[in-house]
């Protein structure tokens, strides 16, 4: 008997590898399912009830407020497609307890876990919308488990509950902390589920009760406090008014010296959500505007975000690498001038390992344009660079105007036999 994965219906539908006869027909069916699933997700996000489905044989999977999961899972793609709207319609009408009852029935089926996981996830997503508190109570033993398969939906449920009743959500979270659900074995709290729960509460509180938000995170001991402040509080989609409030919270709690770095860490995921170089810069500029960033904050955010994105060495293989580096420096000089040289040095040092000639040309170009040797000196000081490329690096050495700096760098070259 062949089981059909819900991923063939529920997005994202990524790769459709269909073999055998009738491949064209199956592909058309799958394309239709993908469109239907996208529409369903859109309705679910807007909490719009689906239209009443037409009557067909798929009605046999519904018995009152119970779904015959065994019958549903053995249907082929076409059968599941017809049943999908009917099941969706039912889910919108189920109470929290009825959703959990269906979840339990599905969990009891003696089928491979991966064959029913996506339906289980869908039920829990619906429960998260219907009664987030009930979902958290049901799976409270998993809230601090890093490997929990329900980690994502638990975070979502808590964030939703925090928006509905932040005081009750905070009390529940404190109770979990007291009972040891979030006992931490990491020195810096990295990967601790507690960070996401605290972030969800703070995002809700920053609008409703900013004083309580500041008091809560201010009472935390380091390094937990910094880990929470740097945990994507300035998330993607955070509107300008809320972003400003979050930034002010970070400034108040972290203090003037630490706030720029905390803002940088907290906004990285927002900056990284881009489809190309230009959008990355636009994301940075929008953040600067939304939070009314100071010059020091602009420098810190730009340097941190772009440095992290450069950790993937594949960028050095770009055909347009020279214009890419040049564009990054030009943007930094305009929008975050205090970070421009340090960022340029990082970029040239990384590029010089793979493509020394290109990096050297850019270092000379920036020296000539600025009349300053600082980038060139720092480039030649990159560990191991001149030793690996002594002949190519020698002409750059002679361009350094300060004799003392020139002689210091000369010591890095391989000794002549």
Summarize the structure in words:
With 417 residues, this protein is an all-alpha fold. Among the domains are: 1-130, no CATH class; 331-417, no CATH class. The protein is 67% helix and 1% strand. The chain contains 21 helices and two strands. It has a two-stranded antiparallel sheet. A hairpin with a 2-residue loop joins strand 1 (62-63) and strand 2. It is elongated. Mean pLDDT is 84; it is low at 1-38 and 40-46.
The shape, in one word, is elongated
Secondary-structure content class? mainly alpha
User: What oligomeric arrangement do these chains adopt?
Assistant: single chain
Number of strands: 2
Q: What is the strand content?
A: under 5%
- The gyration radius over C-alpha positions equals 28 Å
Q: Summarize the main sheet.
A: 2 strands, antiparallel
Overall pLDDT confidence? 84
Q: Which parts are unreliable, with pLDDT below 50 for 5 consecutive residues or more?
A: 1-38, 40-46
Helix tally equals 21
Give the proportion of residues in helices: 55-70%
Spell out the helices and strands N to C: HEEHHHHHHHHHHHHHHHHHHHH
End-to-end separation: 75 Å
Strand order of the largest sheet: 1-2
């Amino acid at each position: 008997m062949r089981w059909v994965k819900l991923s063939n219906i529920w997005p994202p539908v990524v790769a459709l590898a269909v073999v055998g006869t009738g491949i064209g027909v199956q592909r058309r069916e799958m394309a239709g399912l993908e469109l239907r699933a996208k529409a369903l997700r859109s309705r679910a996000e807007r909490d719009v009830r689906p239209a009443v489905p037409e009557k067909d044989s798929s009605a046999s999977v519904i018995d009152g407020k119970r779904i015959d999961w065994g019958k549903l899972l053995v249907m082929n793609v076409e059968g599941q497609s017809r049943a999908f709207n009917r099941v969706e319609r039912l889910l919108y009408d189920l109470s929290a307890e009825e959703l959990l009852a269906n979840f339990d029935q599905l969990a009891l089926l003696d089928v491979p876990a991966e064959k029913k996981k996506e339906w289980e996830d869908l039920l829990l997503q619906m429960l998260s919308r219907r009664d987030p508190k009930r979902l958290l109570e049901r799976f409270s033993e998993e809230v601090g488990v890093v490997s929990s398969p329900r980690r994502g939906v638990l975070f979502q449920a808590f964030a939703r509950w925090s928006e509905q009743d932040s005081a009750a959500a905070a009390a529940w979270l404190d109770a979990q902390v007291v009972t040891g659900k979030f006992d931490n074995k990491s020195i810096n709290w990295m990967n601790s589920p507690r960070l996401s729960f605290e972030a969800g509460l703070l995002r809700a509180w920053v609008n409703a009760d900013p004083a309580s938000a500041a008091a809560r995170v201010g009472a935390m001991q380091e390094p937990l406090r910094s880990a929470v402040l740097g945990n994507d509080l300035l998330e993607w989609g955070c509107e300008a008014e809320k972003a400003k409030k979050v930034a002010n919270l970070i400034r108040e709690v972290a203090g003037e010296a630490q706030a720029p770095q905390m803002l940088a860490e907290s906004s990285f995921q927002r900056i990284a959500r881009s489809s190309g170089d230009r959008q990355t810069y636009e994301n940075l500029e929008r953040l600067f505007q939304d939070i009314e960033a100071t010059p020091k904050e602009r420098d810190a955010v730009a340097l941190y975000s772009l440095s992290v994105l450069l950790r993937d060495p594949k960028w050095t293989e770009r055909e347009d690498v020279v214009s890419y580096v040049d564009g990054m420096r030009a943007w930094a000089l305009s929008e975050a001038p205090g970070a421009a040289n340090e960022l340029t040095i990082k970029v040239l040092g990384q590029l010089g390992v793979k493509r020394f000639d290109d990096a050297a040309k850019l270092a000379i170009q920036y020296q000539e344009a600025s009349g300053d040797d600082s980038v060139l000196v720092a480039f030649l000081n990159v560990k191991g660079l001149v030793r690996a490329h002594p002949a190519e690096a020698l002409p750059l050495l002679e361009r350094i105007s300060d004799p003392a700096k020139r002689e210091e760098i000369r010591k890095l070259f391989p000794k002549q036999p």
